[in-house]
Every structure is written in C-alpha cells, then in structure tokens.
Write a structure and sequence with these properties.
Mean pLDDT: 86
Distance between the termini: 63 Å
Structural class: alpha+beta
Number of helices: 3
Helix content: 25-40%
Order of helices and strands: HEEEEEEHEHEE
C-alpha cells in the first residue's frame, strides 16, 4: 500500500513538473492593438471634444451620429425617418475612412427624442442596412443634441 502511494506521488510530481517546465519557443507575446482616430467633418466648423470614430484593432467604434446633411450643415428636414436615412449616409462615409461599409456593422444603439417616432425610424433603419441586420438597442431620450429626432451609435468590425 505504501508503494502505491509512492508511485501515485511520483506521477503527480511528474505531471506538475511538466506543467512548470516549458519550451520558450512556444510563448507568444502580444502587443497592444493599433488605435486610429478619425475626427471627421464638424458642424459649422465647431470643434467637437470627441472623435467621430476610433478603430482599435479590427473594431471600429462610431460616435453617436445625427442626421445632419453635410451640404447644408442642418438636420435633414422631415423628422425621424429622413434623419435616420441621413445618419446612415453619414455613417457610410465614416466607415469608408476605414475601408468598411454598412455590412460590417455588428451593433447599433438608437436614441429617439420621442418614442412615438419609432415606426418612422425603424422603416428608414430597415431600408438603410443590409441583411443580416446588426444587433440593436433602441432607447427613448429626453432631448437630443441640436434638437435632433434620432441619434445612432454603431460598432463595426473592419474587413
């Protein structure tokens, strides 16, 4: 019986020592991912205290986007539907800076100034994004910047 314990203890010691001794060639060092910021175009030359998008490795994080028409520098007229359509045209331009497009979007958060405009936003959202649609959260907000009806924030994976 004592011999059985000695053999078992020896086997355990061999297993443990095998875990501790390792070939240094098998160790892989990782480095921090590359980070790229995109400032984008600002409304009426206003300097905004944030990046329009940031790429960290393969992830692209887009700031909340309003439906501002870059030609007029004003919100797209007509409410939640037209603003949502403009938002995704703007997001398309931002993603292009990273050689990505709407098919690379994996998550969106939609903020509505009035939940009664959900249907208008949802129809424009559906028309703007290719299938399969990304994951999404929709929240009601008590007021959005510049009096906007909709704001959309997205995450994408770079191709």
């Amino acid at each position: 019986m004592i011999r059985t314990y000695a053999v078992a203890a020896g086997a355990v010691a061999m297993c443990l020592s095998g875990c501790i001794a390792m070939d240094v060639q098998d160790v892989q060092m990782t480095t921090s991912p590359e980070i790229a910021h995109y400032a984008g175009v600002t409304k009426a030359g206003t300097d905004l205290p944030f990046s329009k998008a940031v790429r960290v490795g393969d992830m692209i994080y887009l700031s909340g986007e309003l439906g501002i028409d870059p030609e007029t520098n004003e919100l797209a007229p007509g409410g939640a539907g037209p603003e949502t359509s403009m938002i995704f045209r703007n997001i398309t331009r931002t993603l292009a800076e990273f050689d990505a497009d709407l098919s690379d979007v994996v998550k969106c958060s939609v903020f509505l100034g009035d939940m009664a405009s959900y249907g208008e936003m949802n129809a424009a959202y559906d028309a703007a994004l290719p299938d399969p649609k990304p994951a999404r959260s929709t929240l009601g907000a008590n007021g959005l910047a510049l009096g906007a009806a909709v704001e959309v924030e997205c995450f994408a994976v770079a191709p």
